[in-house]
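Side project, low priority. Logging it here so it doesn't get lost.
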Amino acid sequence: MKFNKICILGLGYIGLPTASMFATHGMEVLGVDVNPHVIDTLQAGQLHIHEPGLGEVMGQAARSGKLRVAAAPEAADAFLIAVPTPFYEHDLGEYNGQPYKKADMRAVTSATQAIVPHLRPGNLVVLESTSPPRTTVDLLVPILEKSGLKAGSDFYVAYSPERVLPGQILRELVENARVIGGITPASAQAGCDLYAAFVRGQIIQTDATTAEMVKLMENTSRDVNIAIANEFSRLAERFGVDVWEAIRLANLHPRVKIFSPGPGVGGHCISVDPWFFVESAPELSALILKARQVNDSQPHWVVEKARQALGTLAGKKIAALGLAYKPDVDDLRESPAAEAVILLQQEGATVKAFEPFKPQAGLDGIQAVATLKEVLAEADLVVLLVNHTEFRALTPATLAALTPARLLLDTVNGWDGQDWPSAGFRLLRLGDGK
């Protein structure tokens, strides 16, 4: 199939890079977002997200006239849905007395409904948003068929999950393998024809529900592996062991790869996707649920380590370094660092936070400052929550000149090997029982 015009609904971390890639490969692209700030920012030639290289690619696409942005969709040959699929914060399910989080599919539903008036015979609709199994066939198809057209015969429907790493999105969109799951083989082939415009990695065709499960399996397996690393860190403290040393030694085994522990798991994928399995089949997801509980509770262990350092948290001043969910990105979604800050404040501490990739973080209940100097100025304790390159490069001499604090808490093993004691610092590390 040949596609001349594509309409992409959702211009976030996936939608905007994808729109820019299609446009720079010769297709007419309309990017749609319901957030007026996003539309105004993009129309002004600016970015609302941080991703290396994206500004140049988007600028090239816009200057060519191939990329436009708007608040509502138009008729097109193909429609891509790349909107958020978070979970409900307070509307929980329960199975055998165990609460679990439920997917909030309202954005997917709204985006699909917005396509219906523009749907024409021969169109392709692709869902990219990470979703519970059977979302494509049980949610999208019934809504799209309200157009009077029959899915699989009058138009094509497919699911194709994004599988990219923030900070490397543009490269991985092109190079990574792409899974296309169609509701029919012809739908999968249509999706393959679309993404072949710029994807150089292998494109594999399957059915829609398998493609949905593939994405969830990828992130759930990582979540489970991180959970065991976090449990190892707790055990190491109990037994007087440095977990970082133990992991390094265990990983010398050719068939062992233990992940790194930390303050928790965040982002819009690993911390969210496993819940879709639990919601869909709680009676079959006991291990997945437990891993989620372990990782979600990890910020509480950060608080306990801070209490070990200070004795009491009430009235103490804490400098929190980092609010992003992972190093060297500006993505704050589901960040365990932010959760740790909130918990420290609930214990009576006064916390200032500095996030170099988003100094004006704007997170409710968190005082974010604009500079490293400001966050460190009056601290009793400095907590390293995110392993940003900028923080990892701090030396004892540099830090000693910026803060009166001589207590450090490293939750990500960013300062291992530095000569902190000789500079007058006491350094505690998460998982270091020595």
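Brief comment: The chain has two domains: 5-85+99-201, 230-429.
Revisit when time allows.
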